[in-house]
Amino acid sequence: MFKRKKKKSIADIIFTIVNTILLTAFCVATLYPILNTLAVSLNEGMDALKGGIYLLPRKFTLENFYTVIKRDNLATAVRISVLRTVIATVLHMFVTAMLAYILSRKEFLFKKQVSLFYVLTMYVNGGLVPVLLLFQDLNLTNSFWVYIVPGAVSAFNMIVIRTFMNGLPDSFVESAQVDGAGHIKIFFRIILPLCKPVLATVALFIAVHQWNSWFDSMLYNINSPHLTTMQFELQKLLSSVSQQQGSASTMKNATNAVTPVSIRSASAILTALPIVCLYPFLQRYFVTGLTIGGVKE
């Protein structure tokens, strides 16, 4: 026999309506800035200065994207940005996860002292000038490895991964040790597969930071055009457009010229596109409870 559907009470109906309205408003508030930026990037630069552009461009053009793409040395900058993002993400995630595993082991006697040492680095900084002098002494300036080596270990990411590892049942490690497995085998064969959710989250943090970073290019590799990054080139492009707009001749003669507003919007869309494409592949790992039911205590 078919079960009769339970009638919803008035309170349930009101809750569903209010919940739907709030979630819809949240989605609109989240998507509107992105759609507005896309509309401005597809609008003529001088016309965009008038304002009044919301979800659709008023005067459609691709000139803003052409200006960004035609930037000199952009191909090299994109290649360096992709390389630093991929290499740094893989290396930083591996080193940080290995450190987190060591500090999560109960048999490690100095884990509290070492953890405190790393936490202090989050609050104490030597300053910009000492760091620059240190990098010069280590021959990291004017080098690709200045993007990779300094941030190989992140205290914050280490704490996040270690906290996740502390929540894993000890039975996994104990069973492997009974079978004769060492810590290296346990780390690669047991711990890492169980830590996919937190590793995916940390990987996204690192990738976004590396992809959006431009200040280190200006500080350490400003004299090495072959090591420039995409974000730094776009920053220089935005500065040059701002200087051109300040001249009276440019404002009078260029009715279809790009402006800082339109260039900023086009740059934001182009730089956000790779991260938006990457996120769906990592989203399925943003779940917890992989070990629930894995071992019966």
TrEMBL record:
Ranges annotated as spanning the membrane: 12-35, 82-103, 115-138, 144-165, 186-208, 261-282
Gene Ontology CC entries for this record: plasma membrane
Sorted UniProt keywords: Cell membrane, Membrane, Transmembrane, Transmembrane helix, Transport
Domain of life: Bacteria
SUPFAM superfamilies xref list: MetI-like
Primary localization class, coarse: membrane
Limits of the ABC transmembrane type-1 domain: 78-282
CDD domains, sorted: TM_PBP2
Entry membrane topology: Multi-pass membrane protein
PROSITE patterns listed in its UniProt record: ABC_TM1
UniProt subcellular location: Cell membrane
Keyword Membrane (UniProt): yes
GO biological process terms held by the UniProt record: transmembrane transport
Family of this protein: Belongs to the binding-protein-dependent transport system permease family.
Protein name: Carbohydrate ABC transporter permease
Organism: Mobilitalea sibirica
Source organism phylogeny: Bacteria, Bacillati, Bacillota, Clostridia, Lachnospirales
